[in-house]
What we know:
By secondary structure, this protein is α/β, with parallel strands linked by helices. Helix content is 48%, strand content 14%. The protein has 5 helices and 3 strands, in the order H-H-E-H-E-H-E-H. A 3-stranded parallel beta sheet has the order 2-1-3. Helix 1 packs parallel to helix 5 and helix 3 packs across helix 5. The chain is globular, with a radius of gyration of 15 Å. The termini are far apart. The relative contact order is 0.22.
Amino acid sequence: PDWAQTAYDDYAKRFPPELKVELKAVKTEPRGSKTLETLYAAERERIEAAIPRGTRVVALDERGTNLTTKALAERLKGWQLGGDDVALVIGGPDGLDPAFRQAAHERIRLSDLTLPHAMVRVLLIEQLYRAWSVNA
């Protein structure tokens, strides 16, 4: 929705040049009569194709580590000091492929609630901005 993109853009432009934030959205696999495994595999292929080699993968997952803003700020500082690009990956309507989740370098959670993807984007970018602000 427009409101979510506007909110995302507003936060994204606040980051300094040395902390580049980029949104890459991959197409959701059309459901039809496909099995969940088929849907996961197609989405995983698209996600992996969008992530450059050598990137640290952090999967957003309901079973991931629950972080406070201060803990996220510490993670952000560690990612910056590590020098690698980081991909924070939000899954599709059925979540992320279990094998992809397991292969991720880290798994974090934003909430106990199930949130719409547009809301997750806004919540995530706001919390990353807040974490950066804590570290600034």
